């Protein structure tokens, strides 16, 4: 009896150790109203947090945040393109400014030499050294101007050839879309306008050149005739061209 009672008593703790400590707060069958207040409060806070995030998601969707990001990306690309175009324009302006400065410097130098030459013709005794120092100026001046005009004419010729190739290519195409025809006409119009502007500038430079030569020729010969007018050319030797400025030298 004693051993049996001892074994019975010792078996009780072993059976109690198998049972998990404490009971669960709720199970699948537990109703919300049956939960403790603190557990209810926790669930309500979680639900409120989830609903708040859902509402924020709906608000962001209505505001079309994704489209704003896409628009921003397109705007950045447009600004980058404008920046590249601006840099290209500035580089072209720098080259144009340098070329213009070189032309202005050359024009100033030519004007100074021309004034000295005219002074030498008007007063050989006082300014005769100018005639000796700049004896080759007219030839050098007209040679340089001729080379510049030759380069311009070559540029105009290349422009015309490009237009001709464009027209030939357009004529050989089987199908012509309205957009292609419009683009071709716009390119041709721009080319012809540029060519007309360059031709007008070339004519203006030529007129200035003729006026300067006429001034030098009249200062040398004392005649008021026009050296470029064929009707004024007589049988005399006063129309001797550039050489006549230096007495046939």
Descriptive report:
It is found in: Nucleus, Nuclear pore complex. InterPro entries: NUP58/p45/49 (IPR024882). GO terms for molecular function: nuclear localization sequence binding; structural constituent of nuclear pore. Keywords: Coiled coil, mRNA transport, Nuclear pore complex, Nucleus, Protein transport, Translocation, Transport. Its main location: nucleus. The chain is mainly alpha-helical. Among the domains are: about 80-135; about 135-225. It contains six helices and no strands. Helix 3 packs across helix 4 and helix 5 runs antiparallel to helix 6 (about 180-220). The longest helix is centred in the middle third of the chain and has 58 residues, at about 65-120. The radius of gyration is 49 Å and the shape is elongated. Residues about 1-20 and about 235-249 have low confidence and may be disordered.
Number of helical segments with 4 or more residues: 6
Give the termini distance in whole angstroms: 160 Å
The portion of residues forming beta strands comes to: under 5%
Task: Please state the CA-atom Rg, rounded to the nearest Å.
Answer: 49 Å
> Structural class per helix/strand content?
mainly alpha
| Total beta strand runs | 0
Q: What's the multimeric state?
A: single chain
Could you give the order of the helices and strands?
HHHHHH
What's the shape? elongated
What's the pLDDT, averaged over the residues?
75
**Helical coverage, percent range:** over 70%
- Unreliable segments of 5+ consecutive residues: 1-21, 235-249
Main sheet overview: none
């Amino acid at each position: 009896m004693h051993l049996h009672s001892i074994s019975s008593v010792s078996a009780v703790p072993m059976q109690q150790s198998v049972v998990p400590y404490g009971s669960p707060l709720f199970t699948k069958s537990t109703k919300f109203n049956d939960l403790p207040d603190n557990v209810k409060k926790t669930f309500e806070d979680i639900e409120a947090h989830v609903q708040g995030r859902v509402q924020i998601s709906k608000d962001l969707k209505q505001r079309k945040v994704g489209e704003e990001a896409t628009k921003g990306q397109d705007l950045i690309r447009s600004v980058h393109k404008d920046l590249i175009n601006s840099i290209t324009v500035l580089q072209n302006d720098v080259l144009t400014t340098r070329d213009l400065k070189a032309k202005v410097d050359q024009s100033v130098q030519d004007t100074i030499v021309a004034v000295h030459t005219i002074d030498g013709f008007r007063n050989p005794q006082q300014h005769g050294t100018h005639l000796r120092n700049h004896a080759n100026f007219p030839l050098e001046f007209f040679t340089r101007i001729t080379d510049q005009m030759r380069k311009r004419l070559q540029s105009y010729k290349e422009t015309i050839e490009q237009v001709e190739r464009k027209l030939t290519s357009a004529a050989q195409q089987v199908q012509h879309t309205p957009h292609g025809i419009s683009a071709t006409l716009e390119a041709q119009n721009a080319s012809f306008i540029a060519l007309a502007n360059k031709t007008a500038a070339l004519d203006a430079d030529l007129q200035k050149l003729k006026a300067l030569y006429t001034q030098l020729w009249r200062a040398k010969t004392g005649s008021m005739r026009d050296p470029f007018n064929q009707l004024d050319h007589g049988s005399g030797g006063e129309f001797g061209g550039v050489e006549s400025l230096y007495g046939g030298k």
